[in-house]
Amino acid sequence: MVANKPLASITVDHGTEFTSKALETWAWERDVKLDFIRPGKPTEKGHIESFNGLLRDECLNVNPFLSLADARQKIEAWRQDYNHHRPHGSLGHLTSAEYVDRYDKEAISKVTNF
Q1: How many CB atoms lie within 10 A of CB 12?
Q2: Distance (Å) of CA 61 to CA 56, 65, 69, 71
Q3: CB atoms < 10 A from the CB of 13, how many?
Q4: Residue 76 C-alpha from the chain's centroid
Q5: Per DSSP, which regions of the chain are E strands?
Q6: Which of 25, 59, 78, 101 is 20 to 30 A away from residue 72, measured at CA?
Q7: Band of the pLDDT at 110, cuts 50, 70, 90?
Q8: CA-CA distance, 49 to 11, in Å (whole number)?
Q9: Cα(114)–Cα(102) distance, rounded to whole angstroms?
Q10: Percent with pLDDT over 90 in the chain
C-alpha cells in the first residue's frame, strides 16, 4: 500500500448517509477514498445520483434497522437483488452480474476486490 494513495474510491453525493463519521471511519480503515460530487451538481455524476437515490428509496428509507447485524443483512439482501436479479437498461437489460460475466469481469474485480 502506497501512502496517500487509496486502493479504491467510492463516488457519493452529500446525503447524510454518505457524510457520516461511521462511513468516513470505515473508508479510512480500508484505505478507500470517498469521492464526493460537487454540492449542487447532481448531474455531474448522474449514475451515482441515480444509484444513491435507489439505495435510499428502496432500502435505507423503508427498512427499520434494529441492529448493525440487521442493517448488514438487509442491505446485503438489497445488494444481491440489485446485482443478481434486476436487469439494468444501461447494461443492455442484463443484471450487473450477467454484465460482469459477459464483458468486464477482470476490470470490475480490480475495483471491487480491495
Answers
A1: 20
A2: 6, 10, 17, 12
A3: 21
A4: 11
A5: 8-12, 32-36
A6: 101
A7: low
A8: 9
A9: 22
A10: 32
Are 87 and 95 in contact by the 8 Å Cβ rule? The answer is: yes
Query: Which 3 state secondary structure label does DSSP give 10?
Result: strand
Tell me the three state secondary structure of residue 33: strand
The three grid cell numbers given for residue 52, joined into one nine-digit string:
444513491
User: Angle 81-46-31 (CA atoms, 0-180°, nearest 5)?
Assistant: 70
What HEC string does 61-87 produce? CCCCCCCHHHHHHHHHHHHHHHHHCCC
For residue 105, what pLDDT band results from cuts at 50, 70 and 90?
low
Tell me the per-residue pLDDT of 67-92, one tens digit each, with 9 for 90 and over: 999 999 999 999 999 999 999 888 88
Q: Alpha-carbon distance 91 to 55, whole Å? A: 18
Cell numbers found for residue 15? 446525503
Distance CA 78, CA 80 (A): 5
107 Cα distance to chain centroid: 16
